[in-house]
Amino acid sequence: MKKKPAFIRWGLLTFAATAVLAACGSAEATDEDAAASNPDAETVVVGTGNAYQPFVYLDENGELDGYDVAVLKAVDEKLDQYDFEYESMDFKNILTSLSADKVQLAAHNYAYNDERGAKYLYGEEAYNNYAHHIAADESTGQVYQSLDDLKGKKVFASPASEVANILETYNAENDDAIEIVYSEVNGELLVSGLQNGTADAAILTKFDVDKYNEQFDINLQASDEALKTAGIYYVFQQGDEELQTAVDGAIKELREEGALSELSVEILGADYTE
Q1: Separation between Cα atoms, residue 207 and residue 268, nearest integer Å
Q2: Fewest CB within 10 angstroms: 20, 56, 136, 257, which?
Q3: How confident is the model at residue 15, as a pLDDT?
Q4: 253-269: average pLDDT
């Protein structure tokens, strides 16, 4: 585990205090130097998004923040052999960058699907779990409980997302019955789109439904049952089992220590790790 500066308590006697303080300064400098850089560490470039609060976004200072990043920083603290660097980009470009070897790890709330699984290496330790619900604005008077209810309806989906995969799989078996509105909109634009008829529904996590209702003082209605419950994983290049195994091991340790749950509660408001 990467070293942290030690804190030393000094005694009451002036001479003893001076001696201990001097030793403390020397120890702290050594530890800080070791923590600052490992010349043999391999740099891992992490591709992630910038507009999916609170999972990954840019804060008021333009710095990456959010749950996905916080977990990776905790993972990085456990892996002396790696140093993580972060590149934020549009969601649609993350996996493309992974394929092009511009990044070695993709982080953006990825659930598993077969199409991605054929191209990329998924982690085996989920760091988050969530369930997809159909959501519509109360003002429409519609509550959708199943994909069958969405036949002939327009539904938001980000390109290449898990939601898009759910809808595309359904359409492949049902003569393209649902009109998929491919869009990167979220937050206020997604809510306004549901209210003005750009789309009839969206497929959101219960977390997002609750967040939008509170943030915009609206009333999105979520389906009673989840369409799909998914574990969320980091994604790696095919063949990079060494990095995958290291990251999975660190996540497992964080879970066993309770640190993963603490991060989820602190950032997401509840424990979504189980």
Answers
A1: 8
A2: 257
A3: 35
A4: 95
